[in-house]
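User: Hand in any protein.

Assistant:
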Amino acid sequence: MEIKLINLTKSFGAKQVIQPTSFIIQSGSLTTLLGPSGCGKTTLLRMIAGL
């Protein structure tokens, strides 16, 4: 399975918390999501999961 995100954004009201971003995660690859607290890691994962 491949995960493809094209021009993904997220806003809470007028505040854009995830800037337009695009990437592809290839099947069988090992991918990590790193960043400081509050940078949007959980928000991004919830968007990918459709929550």
